[in-house]
Prior knowledge:
Elements: E1 3-9, H1 14-19, H2 23-29, E2 33-38, H3 42-55, E3 66-71, E4 78-84, H4 89-103
Parallel strand pairs: 1-2
Antiparallel strand pairs: 1-3, 3-4
Amino acid sequence: MERAVIKFSAEGCGICHRMSFYDHKVVEEMGLRFIDVKMQDTVTYRQYRKVLLTQYPNKTDMGWPSYIICDQPDGEFQILGEVKGGHPRGEFKGKIQAILQIVA
Length: 104
């Protein structure tokens, strides 16, 4: 089973940019796949749009960035949880670990 963290962000978002210095490293250190989806990248966005709209049907409750933790992101995905907004490295890792512990 493939488990991934999908980051939905915008190119003009300062917090999204700051998180990019370590978010992918933290996710990969945890043995998860990291998928970076910039809303302006229409090809990648279309590929993962269904995951985003399942979690945020009208996008109103999204954070910038929004990280969706899910199983099988390229198939019959199952959303396990989310992390919204910017966080220091350790706090970000802790939030993902907490989601993984709940579903373990």
